[in-house]
Write a structure and sequence with these properties.
This protein is α+β, with helices and mostly antiparallel strands and about 110 residues long. It is built from four helices and four strands, in the order βββααβαα.
Amino acid sequence: RIEVTHPGFLTLLPDSPGVYKYYDAKGKLLYVGKAKHLKKRVSSYFNKTHDDAKTRILVRQIHSIELILVDSEMDALLLENNLIKENNAPLAVLKALAVWCRLAVRDQTA
């Protein structure tokens, strides 16, 4: 795990596809996400101001990051989906449900 309190922790991130897992100070899993470029995606959480209150609260709670590198963006998508199901990461589950709901609505109106 990479501690976000480590100076320059963003420079430790690889620029490859994978899944990132955010943990709070007690080691509780907060969020699971995927990225085509882990360095760009994870850095985006820490390098800008977020309009969404949910994201601002999430970033304040992040204490450490775990990375799982994969071969492709599709592998990251599949792994993210499996990890969300296995771990019930609260915010990631909400995100997955929102995506599913949007897909379901589009299917019904097509």
